[in-house]
Design a protein that fits this description.
The complex is a heterodimer of chains A (268) and B (80). Chain A is of the alpha/beta class and 268 residues long. In chain A, 40% of the residues lie in helices and 18% in strands. In chain A, strand 6, helix 8 and strand 7 form a beta-alpha-beta unit. With 80 residues, chain B is mostly beta strands. A five-stranded mixed β-sheet of chain B has the order 2-1-5-3-4, with helices on one face. The longest helix of chain B has 8 residues. Classes of the chains: A alpha/beta (268), B mainly beta (80). At the A-B interface, helix 5, strand 7, strand 8, helix 9 and strand 9 of A face strand 3, strand 4 and strand 5 of B.
Chain lengths: 268, 80
């Protein structure tokens, strides 16, 4: 690390935190990127002030682990958009976003980055632009693409965790199988109406005996179910990256928000 | 006289609409999960079948039920 940069960050870091103003000053003084300065600060154990409320659940050391992590979010609709926002806010350093679609009117009920202005625009580009405004340290790679797990897995081969935010069981099954083959972390989520299901186990055959659509075709997808699902998935991602707590590695969570029933069953 | 079995059927999420949460039901021996699904009248066109458990273990529709089995039927959930 550049000695002058190091000295500047140390000098401007107060109580172990680097303010946004000091962070920006370092960018200007050293002609570095916002991301570079964040990396330097975290290496020195100095945490950007934006992450203050992550502590002490997430330590300075863990914050660096999140920065170094790469998460692939497959699907940027109700689940993926919310997951991407939470991961960018918590400080995951690298996000690859996949979605072939543009925002449409029927997305407005739940997809966090859909607005009147974004209708007709590719979701991944809209999400990238919004995330950069939230956290410019995150490296975001957007792909306008209908992700095919069998043909396209190489594109995410170096991801630490793959988030299944897809909207059809057949592709979900294929994504889980590829993650299992490649030993990638996998976080499944799916919703229908006021029900959500989750697992971090990479075998989905017990959830989907066949590939066709589920109850969502009739029951639709509600905003709080999508945000709830994204919260569960984001927590799983962070726990996997940091190696903390307990994940749904061997279990499936079924959350019925209509009847207020949470059921945990074995994954296999 | 044909022997019968008594089982407990639990329905989850969308399947409960106008149906039941849990019910004890009597069937002839040899009854499969598919037979029970048909008999309960749950609308599998609207809400296709997802997870199936007998006594907490994953099974499929061909599973032949035994006396005092607890069968849990969840709708398939696949939206994103």
């Amino acid at each position: 690390m550049d000695k002058e940069r190091e000295a500047f960050i140390k000098e401007n870091g107060k109580d172990g935190f680097l303010s946004f103003a000091a962070h920006n000053s370092a960018v200007k003084v050293f002609g570095a990127t916002f991301r570079d300065i964040e990396e330097d600060a975290l290496r020195l154990g100095i945490v950007p002030f934006r992450y203050k409320r992550n502590q002490s659940t997430i330590s300075a050391e863990s914050q660096k682990k999140l920065f170094d992590a790469h998460v692939a979010v497959i699907g940027c609709g109700g689940l993926g958009g919310n997951v991407a926002e939470m991961l960018a806010r918590v400080g995951v350093g690298k996000l690859s976003l996949f979605d072939f679609d543009v925002f449409e009117e029927h997305n407005l009920n739940r997809q966090n980055f859909s607005t009147i202005e974004s209708l007709g625009k590719e979701k991944v580009y809209v999400v990238k632009a919004a995330l950069q405004k939230i956290n410019p340290a995150v490296l975001i790679s957007p792909f306008v693409k209908k992700f095919n797990p069998v043909e396209d897995f190489d594109m995410i081969a170096d991801a630490d965790v793959v988030v299944d935010a897809l909207d059809n069981p057949q592709t979900k099954l294929e994504l889980a199988r590829k993650c299992k083959e490649n030993g990638a972390g996998f976080v499944h989520g799916a919703i229908a109406g006021m029900t959500g299901q989750f697992t971090t186990n990479n075998t989905l055959e017990n959830l989907y005996h066949e590939g066709g659509a589920g109850a969502e075709s009739t029951a639709g997808n509600l905003p709080f179910t999508a945000a709830f699902a994204a919260s569960v998935q984001s927590a799983e991602v962070v726990k996997i990256i940091l190696g903390i707590g307990k994940t749904f590695k061997d279990e499936i969570l079924i959350a019925d928000l209509l009847n207020n029933e949470l059921v945990i069953i074995p994954a296999k | 006289m044909n022997k019968t079995i008594e089982i407990t059927v639990k329905l989850f999420a969308h399947y409960r609409e106008n149906k039941f949460k849990v019910q004890n039901r009597t069937y002839p021996e040899g009854t499969t999960v598919r037979d029970v699904i048909d008999d309960t009248g749950i609308d599998i066109e609207k809400f296709p079948v997802g997870i199936l458990l007998a006594n907490g273990r994953h099974i499929d529709e061909e599973y032949v039920l035994k006396d005092s089995d607890v069968l849990a039927i969840f709708p398939k959930v696949g939206g994103g």
